Structures are given as structure tokens and as C-alpha cells.
TrEMBL record, chain A:
<dbReference type="InterPro" id="IPR045570">
    <property type="entry name" value="Metalloprtase-TldD/E_cen_dom"/>
</dbReference>
<dbReference type="InterPro" id="IPR002510">
    <property type="entry name" value="Metalloprtase-TldD/E_N"/>
</dbReference>
<feature type="domain" description="Metalloprotease TldD/E C-terminal">
    <location>
        <begin position="287"/>
        <end position="535"/>
    </location>
</feature>
<dbReference type="InterPro" id="IPR051463">
    <property type="entry name" value="Peptidase_U62_metallo"/>
</dbReference>
<comment type="similarity">
    <text>Belongs to the peptidase U62 family.</text>
</comment>
<feature type="domain" description="Metalloprotease TldD/E central">
    <location>
        <begin position="158"/>
        <end position="277"/>
    </location>
</feature>
<dbReference type="InterPro" id="IPR006311">
    <property type="entry name" value="TAT_signal"/>
</dbReference>
<dbReference type="GO" id="GO:0006508">
    <property type="term" value="P:proteolysis"/>
</dbReference>
<dbReference type="GO" id="GO:0005829">
    <property type="term" value="C:cytosol"/>
</dbReference>
TrEMBL record, chain B:
<dbReference type="Pfam" id="PF19289">
    <property type="entry name" value="PmbA_TldD_3rd"/>
</dbReference>
<feature type="domain" description="Metalloprotease TldD/E C-terminal">
    <location>
        <begin position="222"/>
        <end position="437"/>
    </location>
</feature>
<dbReference type="GO" id="GO:0006508">
    <property type="term" value="P:proteolysis"/>
</dbReference>
<dbReference type="InterPro" id="IPR045570">
    <property type="entry name" value="Metalloprtase-TldD/E_cen_dom"/>
</dbReference>
<dbReference type="GO" id="GO:0008237">
    <property type="term" value="F:metallopeptidase activity"/>
</dbReference>
<feature type="domain" description="Metalloprotease TldD/E central">
    <location>
        <begin position="125"/>
        <end position="214"/>
    </location>
</feature>
<dbReference type="Pfam" id="PF19290">
    <property type="entry name" value="PmbA_TldD_2nd"/>
</dbReference>
<dbReference type="InterPro" id="IPR036059">
    <property type="entry name" value="TldD/PmbA_sf"/>
</dbReference>
<dbReference type="InterPro" id="IPR035068">
    <property type="entry name" value="TldD/PmbA_N"/>
</dbReference>
Amino acid sequence: MDRRKFLQLSGAGLGFSMLPLSGVAVAEAKLTQSGIDIAVKKELADAALNTATKLGASYADVRIGRYLNQFVITREMKVQNVVNTESLGMGVRVIANGTWGFAATNDMTVDGISRAAAQAVATAKANSRYQEEPVQLAKQKGFGEVSWRTPIQKNAIAMPLAEKVDLLMEVNKAALDSGADFVNSMLFLVNEQKYFASTDGSYIDQDVHRLWAPFEVTAVDKKSGAFRSRRGLSQPVGRGFEYLDGRKEDKIQSQTVLYRDSYDMLEDARLAAEQAREKLSAKSVKPGKYDLVLDPSHLWLTIHESVGHPLELDRVLGYEANFAGTSFATIDKWRSGKFQYGSDKVNFVADKVQPGSLGAVGYDDEGVKTGSWELVKDGVLVNYQAIRDQVHMLGQKASHGCCYADSWSSVQFQRMPNVSLMPGKETLSVEDMIKDVEKGIYIIGDGSFSIDQQRYNFQFGGQLFYEIENGKITGMLEDVAYQSNTQEFWNACSQICDKRDYRLGGSFFDGKGQPQQVSAVSHGSATARFNGVNVINTKRKLG
Amino acid sequence: MAILSRSEAKQILDKVLKYSKAEAASAQLSGSETGNIRYARNSVSTSGIVNDIELVVEARFGKKSGIATINEFSDAALEKVMRRAEELAKLSPDNPESMPLLGAQKYLPVNAFAKSTAEITPDQRAKAAADSIAAAKKQKVVAAGFLEDTRTFAAVANTEGLFGYHASTSANFTVTMRTENGQGSGWAQSDVTDFATMDTGATSRIAAQKAVESQQARALEPGKYTVILEPSAVSGLLGFMMWSADARTADEGRSFMSKKGGGNRIGEKMFDKRVHLYSDPTDPNVPAQPWSDEDHMALSRIDWIKNGVVRNLPRSRYWAQKTKAEPVPRPSNLIMAGGDKSTEQLIKETRRGVLVTRTWYIRMVDPQSLLLTGLTRDGTFYIENGKIKYPIKNFRFNESPVIMLNNIEDMGRPQRVGMGGFSAMIPALKVRDFTFSSLSDAV
């Protein structure tokens, strides 16, 4: 089986029907077994580091990874699939002759890892013939033997399967009872057990947990042949199963119920079914300029695409030119110190530490302690996202700590940290924001998304659209998508609600690189207003 | 070790199935060796080789099933993996949609293995990158590219008498060339079974030329245009259509293939009469695995759309039984019949239009009409009186492939393109009234 299998959820009209599935299928019980003993990991790591150094590497790091996944997949009152996977192996990365080399193996012996180290050095030397500039690695102090764990209360992967299946069956029943014709619901659970060691003198043991509970309901009007769907508003999180407790204090009453740090899947499914049906008779939007009021459950994706990606330094420099693309946010714009990315209300902060976020870890995948840094300050571009072999290009000395590999067998590279829009400094509620809008649309939930390879022109849909007329919400709209240009859009940001409304959204499967790797990342914001954005009508008729 | 012969694979599969005490069992053995080299800014950035071999065993008791995997093949290991699958099956809930294992299948012989790809060396990969970088330097542009070569085998067997073996090789190369001033960008690709037929230098020269010629692009007003979509531009939209086509979703009323009032649109003429889309694992241009990944059903030539009429939709065995129809396995390749014309000829016969090298970041906007949005990228040109007049700025499109395949003016010669995991033969298409909804500043 290819290491990167694509799990096809056949028959489901889902936006997320193609999911990367790494590792091999294992028994559920395997997910609760403990991994390799830490002393053994250190012995293997040292063998790799010593071999690489002996063969001429000027730097080496090794990652010993055990990656556990559980996917529980259901539709209507059926469990379609339960997939448990485990992937175990080691990857060695070296610098020799000023060039990177990488090799990976699942032969978990001293001989196996030493062979991989030798192969990595040989690859580095072979490629150095075509290397024009030697790698410059930012200095990093060793941390000795340290560890970090996602602060979870309930280990979702270790919970009894029956409990997870029961939850999804209840969710599906609630949706069907509330008017849905179809419902698909899932649980994706991830546990990365990662051990990192490098010639800098770090031995870092980390236990990272993530969870996502998406669903989609569909309502069909057989007579007209129309159908409409509504996806769940849960967000993927760096939390344990406690995220699904749906605590009262985490609920926000809006046009639908919105959620902060925990999620009531059952309630959302009920509402989703009603809303999918309501969509079938909702008014089709009149195209034109509208003031948009964007909920964090929607805005995270716009932030991800139009701020997170363009500020990845490897894209800016052209390393991703052949796949993900480059960036409009070029070095000269940053150097000018005057590039107005957004209005003066707009502040973006990158971080790898926010509790509950997907990006939170203690150390990145090249042994850098994580933290946070400003990307856009008072609307002006001030920094990028960069790792150890990149920061020198910005004249900076320390890595930002956002290096990541999705598997032991993938080479680590710069990946997006959490990138979040800071809440407004002045007290402002969503109700007060809407009161001021004459002609607008309030959008909840993420939908269709597309952006060009330099991140100028984008188009976004959503899950729920509500028309605002003269400060009041007057009803549901359908067929809405907005198109804008990144710089115009963020400069049209006129108001941001205060920190009481700040919430995290995120992506479980952000793709980048060749071969492609996935990573998980969160984006926080409070509800924000954007003036005069172009809205198109997406309804088409087939013959 | 990664690539086993037919007899080596059969021996392991026979042995593991003999250990079965379940009502039925099946096993799949597969291995791959994948090499790659990636470069950017005219310099190699990463390269590597990944080997993998794995045995997947499924045990069945009624509608209960358990799956276990292993990557060692001693007698003890084989017995252990079967016992584990059996234990898992006994513990698992019934799957109401489970279908009995298939009996012996007649798999078509497919020749998809090329020695040159099987024996590719790290030096050859490095040279492939060097040839591309040399092409870039000659035109004073900057190359970023990726070459991935794969050798793979898969063998399947079960206790009902099914056995199959398939070995294949493939190499996929993509390259983006950008001018140093950032004003021009070009892209080209090559997807082959036999690495000896791949010329990364020649492919790179096409991309470099497009980069140079796409500088100083002018802005055209968004609107409806006649377009010539090169094969890679077409495949982006067609891929979405093929992935969305499914009998069950259509019958359930939630697909662009659903019929008003119920049922699906098989038998209806939904497209221009020249549209002929089919799959055939034995096609010499795109040889592919002769069984479906889902349940190992034998694949053979099948029409999806012929003369513009929907002929077939993929249909799982479960749904086939439920709807008293024939099961239709998902294919392993896709072929769209075209004409004999080169892209140059299509341009020559176009009075006014837009040439699109490639489509990018395509996403579903509305599954009801299969409305997709995405952008043009890496070489978009204005055509006037049979000639490329000047480069133009990229557009965002909002268009349904169903509408696109109704508005065909002409078709070019099919070319092989990589299409998200499998290979396809796709012609360039000349299409009228293609909807560009806004301009993009991206180069």
C-alpha cells in the first residue's frame, strides 16, 4: 500500500471527500499501546547522528515518529468504516558539502538508522554538485532531554470506539429527525508521538493530539430536483475529546449557535438540517457590492489563504513556484516598511503556542522552541514565516520555529504556524457591528475557496448567508460568493469585534510541497466587517 | 525487495490465505519504490527515495470484517497477521453494506512496466534536473521543477479463487519557469510509463519559452470568451466531473447527474455529440491497473459518455444490488477522444480567443450545476486572426465542465497528462462562451 493512501468516501457529496490517510491499518488496541521506550529512541538517534557526522555531515537531525490516526466514518444510521492506522519509522536529515540530504527507514534498528544516515549523506554529496548557494543554518542551542504534550483532558484516540460510534449515530439521527435526507459524519483523531534529536544537543520527546468532528447534511427537493447542504460548524482543534462536551459557556446565540472552545455536535446537526431545508427556498443573492460581516467560523479560511500562505518565506522566494506558487508579498514590499497590507485596524500575529490550536507544540521539527511573532502591525507588513535555513535571508538570526514534517518519511520544511487576526481594541459586539450596516451580508461557516498562485485574487463561499438591510438581518440568502483582491480586502476592513468574540478556526489538511505534505493549522479572529466587497451570484442552470 | 515477481507474490498470498480460519479471507500485497528530485531557483532543493512493501489481510465472518497489515513475511508473521484480522473481524459491528468477496476475475493483461524507469539511478534524476536548469539558464529564466519516478507492484488473492498481479512504472515531471523580473511565468509537464521517452530539457524549453513570451501581459475585460484550453487546463475541470460522477449520489438526488423527479441521467444527451469519455486499462498510451482498488473488480474498456450521451456511472456492488443494476467499478485511467489537430492548428483556425496553458486551484462552488471556480496560470495569451497576439493577465473562471462540454467548437490531439494520482489522455479543447469572471494580478 502506498504510504499516502487516499481514502475515498464513496457516495458522499462531501467537500472533504478526499482525505490523506498515512500509515497502515492496525487494530484499535494498538492505538492505546505505548510507543518505543525513550532510551531506545535515544540510542537509535545517537547512532544516526554519529554515523552522519563520521561520514562528513556538518549538521544532522533525526526524527523518530509514531503516528496514530483513527477515522470513524458514518452515513445516516450506518457506520461505513473505522480505520485505525499506525506509522512508525525514522527520518535523518543532514548537511554535507553545504547541501541537504534526507533518507528515511522503517527498519527500527541501529543498523537500519545508520544505513539511512549514510544514504542521507551520500544524497547530500551527490546533489551538492548542483547546489549554487550552500545552506546557511541559523544557530540553535541544544535543549538536552526535554518533553512536551498537548494539554488534553481526554485522550480521544484511547476512548472506547463504542462511545464515538454512539455519538455519531445520535448526531445522524438528530439530523434525519430534523429534516435532512442525508447526513455524513466523521471523527478524525490524530496522535503524533515525535522524538527529535540533533547534533545541536537536543533530545525532544513530544506527544501531540488533534481532533476534528465534521459532518454534512443534505436536503433534497425531489420535485424541483434541487438539493442544498450545510456542513457542521465544528473546528479542528488541538484538544482532547472534551472538545465535544458542548459546554453552555462556550455557546454564542446568533442566527445559529456558534461555538468557542467546545462544541455541541448534536445541537449543530439539528440546526444544520433545518437550515439546509431553509436554503432550498432562500432568496438568490443579487450580485453587487455589499458590506460583509464575517464570523470567525468563516474568516479563518480567508485569513489562511490570503495572509497565512502569502507570508510563507519559501513561497516568497520561489521555492514553491512549481506547485503552490509564489507570493505578491515580495521582499521589497516588506523592506520598504510601508507596505499597507490592511487598514490600520489590522494586526496579524503568527504563533505556535495558542492553547487549543492545531499549531501548538513545544518545539518545531528542527528543534526550535516555539513562540509568537508579528506579521502585520497596524496594517503594515513587518515579517514573514521562516525557519533555520531561511532567516538569514531576512537578516534575522533566530528561526521563527515553524518547521514541520507530516511523517517520519517526509523531509521537514517551512509550514504555516497559526496566523490570527487580533481582536479590535475598542469594545464592539456583533450586534452593534450589524446595526451600522446599511446593505450587507453576514456569513457563517467556510465553503468553497480558491485563490491565485500569488495570492491576489480570491473567491470564497460559506455555509450560511444572511442579508443585512439598514442595520437589521432580514432573511437568508443563497448562491453567494465574494471575490476580492487580498490587499483591497484587508484595507476594506473597517471594524473588528473585541476579544470577547475571538475564536479559532482551522484546517486539518493544509497541503504544500512536492511530494505533497499535509499540516494542521489554526486561525483566530473576532467577527470583522469589510466594506464594499464584490458579491457574485453562483446559480447556474444545466440543460 | 520492494518489487516482487508474480510467482514470489503469489507464494506469499497463497501461504497467508492457507492460515485462514475465517469464513472468507482476502489479501493484498503491494510494494513501491519512489524516487524524486525537486529544484527551485535553478538549484536542487531536495531529493529522496522511499521504499515500501506491505501485506493487507482481510478476514470475514458474515457481514463482519477485520483488516490487519504487516510488512514481514516469515511463516510466523503470516500466521500472526491472519489471526489478528480474524480477531478484529469477530469484534467489529456488522457492515450492512458489506458484499461477499468476488470469485475468480479475468484480469486483462496490461503492459505498464518499463525497464528504463525501473532502473533509474540518482545520477539520472540529477541529470534530468540539470537539463531543465540548463534550459532555464539559456533563456535567462528561473526554474522550479519536480520529477517523481515510481516502480510498483500489486498482487491480490482471496479464498474464493481470485488472483491478480500487476506491475507498473511511471515518471511524472512538472516545471515552472519564471523570468527574473517576475513578469513572466510558463509551465509544462510530461507524464510517461517509460523514463527513456522523457526529455526534461525539451519540456523545460516549452515552459521557458512561455515564461519569456508571457511578460508584459495586458488586461482584457472579464466576460465570455472563446478559449483554447490545453490538455492540462482541460484535465483540471474534467477530473472534478469524473470524481463527482456516481450512480448512488445521482439516484439519491444530490448530484449534477440526478434527474428531476428521481433517478439518474444515464441515457440522456447532456453534452456536445462529439464528447466521448472512456476508460481502458489496456490502452497503450495510459496502461493502468486492470482492477479497481475498492474491491478488485476486473476493469475493461467502458464508455462513460459517448456521442454526448451519458452511458455509465460508477456504481458500487452494494448499490447495484440495491437498485437491481450492474455494478460499475471506478476506473484506473481516463481517456477523452479528440481530433488530429495540434494546438498550433487550433490557434491558426481561431479568429479571436484566449489560449490557456493551465487551470489552477479549482474548487466546487455548486454541486447542483457542478459550477467550479479556479484560475488560469503560467501562460495565458490573446489570439487574433489565427495568431498569438500578446500575453494577457490571468483570469478567474466560474464555469461548469458540463457547460464547457456543451460548448465545444473543436478538439485537438489527446496528450497524456497526470491527473491527481492517475494518468489520462486528454485533448486540447476549443470552447465558446467560457466564463471569466474577474482578473488576477498573479504571474
